[in-house]
Amino acid sequence: MSDDESPTRPGSTRVRLNASAPGILADRAVHDMVIASAEAIAERTGVPLISIDADDKGVTALVEGNRLVAVGLAAELRRLTGAWFSRHNPGQRLWIDPHPDDESDGPDSDWDDDSSWRGEHNPT
């Protein structure tokens, strides 16, 4: 996995999962599990993972590919790490739940909200 200094890269999409509580990823075991899981999912599925970064509010991945590729990686990461976290911390959640899109203004309206995942695609 290469380390990309620029915020975007041609043909890439950025996706973010927001943690359920600030600082939850400061726990080294949680942080390491999320990063290792993202790398393993990318390797297993053949998705080029350009970069992965975790901070106290969540995790951001930059993948080579379109929104579908990025959302697929984020969904699998959310599913696997969320289940792991809940098993080790009963009654707690790792990620916030996406907000239902009650007032949709089009097919991409959920890319502009503050849900648990966000994506930005840079086609060129």
Structure characterization notes:
It contains 2 helices and 4 strands, in the order E-H-E-E-H-E. About 30% of the residues lie in helices and about 20% in strands. The protein starts with 11 loop residues before the first strand and ends with a strand. It is globular and about 40 Å long. It has about 120 residues and is α+β, with helices and mostly antiparallel strands. Helix 1 (about 30-45) packs across helix 2. The chain has one domain (about 10-120): Alpha-Beta Plaits.
Query: The CATH topology is what?
Result: Alpha-Beta Plaits
Write down the overall mean pLDDT.
82
Instruction: Give the strand line-up of the largest sheet.
Output: 2-3-1-4
Count of discrete domains = 1
CATH superfamily: Transposase IS200-like
* Class by SSE composition: alpha+beta
Roughly how many Å apart are the termini? 21 Å
Measured as a percent range, the helix fraction is: 25-40%
CATH architecture: 2-Layer Sandwich
CATH class annotation: Alpha Beta
Quickly count the helices.
Answer: 2
Percent of residues in beta strands? 15-25%
Q: What best-fitting shape do the alpha-carbon axes yield?
A: globular
* Largest sheet: number of strands, sense, barrel closure: 4 strands, antiparallel
Report the strand count: 4
Topology pattern, helix = H, strand = E: EHEEHE
